[in-house]
C-alpha cells in the first residue's frame, strides 16, 4: 500500500480547486472531483465548476459527466471513483481528490455505510408530505428523530432529509446510528488536507462568490432549467432560490440574499462534518505555497512508510 490519495476538503468557496491543482501539478498527477453538485453538465455557474483554464491546467475526473436527468447516487459515485482510482494508481503513486460533499468524500475514503431495507411506502408518504406541506415539516421531524444527523446534513436538500427520515421511521433508530461502522479496506492510504479560515473570512468569500455568479449569468442559467425544476439535482442552493424569484414568489434581491444565507449555513455544516476527522491536516486559506508543498510531501512520505 504505497499509493496515496490526497483528499482536499473544506467549506464552499475556500479555495479547494486552486489547492487541488497546485498539488496535482506538483505531484504530476490527476484530480478526482467529489463535489456532487458539479457532476451535472447543465449546471455550471451555480455550482462553481472549475473554469476552462483550471480544467486545462490539471486533468479532472467526474466534472459535468452526467445529466440532471440521470439518476446518479453516492453508491454509483463510490463504484466509479474507486474504479478510476485503481486505473490511475497503475501509473501514479499519488492522486488528488477535491470536494466539499462530505458524504461523497467519505464514500471514497471509508466506503458507504450499509442500511437496512425499509418499507417503500414510507418514502412515498414523505414525498407526499414534501409536495403538500413543503420542506419545513420534514426538517422538524428529523430534528426530533435524529438531532445528531440534523446538525450535519444539508437540511435544504429534500432528498437527504427523506433518506434519513425513512430509515429513522422504518427502523425506529436514528439514521446516524448506522453511520458508525468500521472503515472499508482500501488498497491506498489517505492524506486529508483541510483548508480553514475564520468564519468571517468564509462568509466574506461566499458573499463575493455569489455576487460573481450573478454577474456571470446565474439567473439566465437557472431560467434555462426552469422546466426541470422538480428534478432532484436542482433542489440545491443557488437554483431553488432563483426558481422562487422566477415563479414570482420572491424579489430578485431577496432570492440572492437567500442564496448567500443558505450557502453560509451549508458552509457551517461542511465544517462540522470535516472537523470530525481528527487525522485531517488543517492549513490556512492564505497558505504559503512552497511551505505547504514541503509539508504535504513530508506527510505523504511518512504515510507511505507507515
Describe this structure in words.
The protein has 306 residues and is an alpha/beta fold. The chain has two domains: 4-113 and 181-305, P-loop containing nucleotide triphosphate hydrolases (Rossmann fold, 3-Layer(aba) Sandwich); 120-179, Histone, subunit A (Orthogonal Bundle), CATH 1.10.20. 50% of the residues lie in helices and 9% in strands. It has 13 helices and six strands. It has helices at 16-26, 52-57, 74-88, 102-109, 120-133, 136-145, 147-150, 158-171, 199-216, 218-223, 240-246, 252-275, 289-305, and strands at residues 4-9, 31-33, 60-61, 94-98, 189-196, 281-284. A six-stranded parallel beta sheet has the order 3-2-4-1-5-6, sandwiched between helices. Strand 2, helix 2 (52-57) and strand 3 form a beta-alpha-beta unit. Helix 5 (120-133) packs across helix 8, helix 6 packs across helix 8 and helix 11 runs antiparallel to helix 12. The longest helix is centred in the last third of the chain and has 24 residues, at 252-275. Its cofactor is Mg(2+). It is an enzyme of class 2 (transferase).
Amino acid at each position: 500500500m504505497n499509493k496515496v490519495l490526497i483528499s482536499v476538503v473544506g467549506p464552499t468557496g475556500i479555495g479547494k480547486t486552486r489547492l487541488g491543482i497546485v498539488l496535482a501539478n506538483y505531484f504530476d498527477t490527476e484530480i478526482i472531483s467529489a463535489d456532487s453538485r458539479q457532476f451535472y453538465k447543465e449546471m455550471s455557474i451555480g455550482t462553481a465548476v472549475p473554469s476552462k483554464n483550471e480544467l486545462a491546467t490539471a486533468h479532472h475526473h467526474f466534472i459535468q459527466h452526467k445529466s440532471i436527468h440521470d439518476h446518479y447516487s453516492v453508491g454509483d459515485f463510490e463504484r466509479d471513483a474507486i474504479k478510476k482510482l485503481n486505473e490511475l494508481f497503475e501509473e501514479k503513486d499519488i492522486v488528488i481528490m477535491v470536494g466539499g460533499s462530505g458524504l461523497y468524500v467519505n464514500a471514497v475514503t471509508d466506503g458507504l455505510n450499509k442500511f437496512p431495507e425499509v418499507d417503500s411506502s414510507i418514502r412515498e408518504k414523505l414525498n407526499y408530505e414534501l409536495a403538500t406541506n413543503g420542506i419545513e415539516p420534514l426538517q422538524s421531524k428529523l430534528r426530533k428523530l435524529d438531532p445528531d444527523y440534523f446538525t450535519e446534513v444539508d437540511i435544504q436538500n429534500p432528498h437527504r432529509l427523506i433518506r434519513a427520515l425513512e430509515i429513522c421511521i422504518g427502523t425506529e433508530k436514528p439514521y446516524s446510528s448506522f453511520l458508525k461502522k468500521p472503515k472499508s479496506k482500501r488498497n491506498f492510504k489517505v492524506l486529508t488536507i483541510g483548508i480553514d479560515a475564520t468564519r468571517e473570512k468564509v462568509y466574506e468569500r461566499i458573499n463575493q462568490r455569489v455576487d460573481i455568479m450573478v454577474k456571470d449569468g446565474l439567473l439566465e442559467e437557472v431560467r434555462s432549467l426552469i422546466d426541470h425544476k422538480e428534478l432532484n439535482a436542482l433542489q440545491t442552493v443557488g437554483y431553488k432560490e432563483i426558481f422562487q424569484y422566477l415563479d414570482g414568489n420572491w424579489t430578485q434581491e431577496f432570492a440572492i440574499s437567500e442564496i448567500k444565507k443558505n450557502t453560509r449555513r451549508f458552509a457551517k455544516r461542511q465544517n462540522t462534518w470535516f472537523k470530525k476527522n481528527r487525522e485531517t491536516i488543517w492549513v490556512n486559506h492564505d497558505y504559503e505555497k512552497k511551505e505547504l508543498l514541503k509539508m504535504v510531501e513530508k506527510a505523504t512520505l511518512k504515510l507511505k512508510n507507515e
